[in-house]
Write a structure and sequence with these properties.
Layout: H1 2-10, E1 18-25, E2 29-38, H2 46-55, E3 65-72, E4 75-78, E5 84-87, E6 91-98, E7 101-108, H3 124-145, E8 160-161, E9 164-165
Antiparallel strand pairs: 1-2, 1-3, 3-6, 4-5, 6-7, 8-9
Helix pairs in contact: 1-3
């Protein structure tokens, strides 16, 4: 997860501040306990992070293993004038080791990645200032993990495509969908 955080940090999409760990027991599943490890950036040496993870294991469950890891931290985005804003959890990322390998998810939480804002207004300047960084980050994650990421399911707010959010044609008024009723 540090490698993924480094990719996101390089593109100013996440400054890693914490890892949230959900603990499990083999043959049982989640034990209902989480711990939080504070990290001072994605460049923190991996051995320090591993030590912190093991040190955060629940004392009453010394046989527990990490069942899920979330990496958290604020990211930056630019408005139509290029002014930079910090947003907590601009991107949300987690992974879960399983018997079949590691499953993970990279999710976005903002309207800056699409051609339209949540009101359906086109915002091409915002899109052009932010969407290329997301595309670059997804490609970077693929490279560092040596995997091809799969598109997730669409939501009421957007439909993912390979390296971002799908574009759709505007309506007769030149607008997209107003999704503010679901915010």
């Amino acid at each position: 997860m540090l490698a993924v955080a480094q990719v996101l940090e390089k593109r100013e999409l996440m400054d890693l501040t914490e890892m949230k760990l959900t603990w499990s027991r083999e043959g049982v599943g989640s034990i209902g306990i989480q711990s939080v490890v504070w990290i001072h950036g994605a460049s923190t040496p991996s051995n320090e992070v591993v030590d912190k993870v093991y040190d955060s294991r629940p004392a009453g469950h010394q046989d527990s293993v990490v069942g899920r890891i979330e990496i958290l931290g604020p990211g930056s985005w630019a408005d139509h004038d290029g002014e930079i804003y910090r947003e907590p959890q601009l991107i949300w990322c987690h992974c879960s080791p399983t018997d079949f390998g590691v499953f993970g998810s990279l999710q976005i939480r903002h309207d800056i990645w699409g051609w339209y804002d949540f009101f359906g207004e086109p915002h091409p300047d915002v899109y052009h200032r932010n969407a290329p960084r997301l595309a670059s980050a997804i490609k970077g994650v693929e490279e560092v993990l040596d995997v091809e990421l799969e598109e997730g399911e669409g939501t009421f707010f957007a439909t993912p495509e390979k390296y971002g959010v799908a574009y759709y044609e505007p309506n007769a008024n030149g607008k997209g969908f107003d999704v503010t009723a679901r915010l």
